[in-house]
Specification:
Elements: H1 27-49, H2 51-54, E1 76-77, E2 80-81, E3 87-94, E4 97-104, H3 107-113, E5 129-132, E6 153-159, E7 162-167, E8 180-187
Antiparallel strand pairs: 1-2, 3-4, 4-8, 5-6, 6-7, 7-8
């Protein structure tokens, strides 16, 4: 067998350091801290960019960003409840005025209940409002999120501060699209 030489363990002074005089493992905590900081910045940036999709005002997914007041669970626009089958409901409330959009198959009943159309009156008589095309100058009110109206549309004259624009049927000019989308503006108090 060969000859063995006995050596002693190296001491801290025997381990060579880097140019700054650091020895061994000093860089690992600094690198880990830098990586954690970078991940925190990226995660914070992603939350900030997606804040509108992640957090709705008042925790209400119907409320649009910037709303300064929450509407109740059952919404009444100008004193008349929106239809029970209303879907895709969105609202924006700012400085005492509300803008609301929804889709419903019972919109004709709502228009009559709100007093915009007489009980036995035609839905789109020129005495109640004006015909229009959504693509020509109609946009959702400022701040209101949701799906825009499809043309053709009909805008009713404002009654008691309530303004309503609805989608008409593109095939049958005297009826609503089914289901129809409405945009309603009204004062809140």
């Amino acid at each position: 067998m060969g000859d063995f030489t006995r050596t002693t363990a190296a001491t801290a002074q025997d381990v060579p350091g880097d140019a700054a005089g650091r020895r061994g493992r000093g860089r690992r905590p600094a690198r880990a801290a830098a990586a954690l900081l970078a991940l925190a910045v990226l995660a914070g940036g992603a939350v900030w960019l997606l804040r509108d999709e992640l957090f709705h005002p008042f925790g209400d997914d119907r409320a649009c960003s910037g709303s300064d007041q929450r509407l109740p669970g059952t919404i009444s626009a100008g004193g008349t409840r929106i239809p029970a089958d209303a879907s895709d409901v969105h609202y924006y409330v700012h400085n005492g005025s509300a803008a609301l959009t929804f889709e419903s198959g019972l919109l004709a009943d709502y228009l009559r209940s709100a007093g915009l159309v007489p009980r036995d009156g035609e839905l789109f008589a020129e005495t109640y409002g004006t015909r229009g095309v959504a693509g020509e100058g109609f946009a959702l009110p400022a701040g209101l999120c949701g799906t825009a109206l499809r043309d053709p549309v009909f805008t009713y004259r404002t009654v008691n501060g309530v303004g309503v624009t609805v989608e008409r049927s593109p095939l049958f000019g005297d009826s609503l699209r089914f289901p129809a989308r409405a945009v309603i503006t009204y004062p809140v108090g």
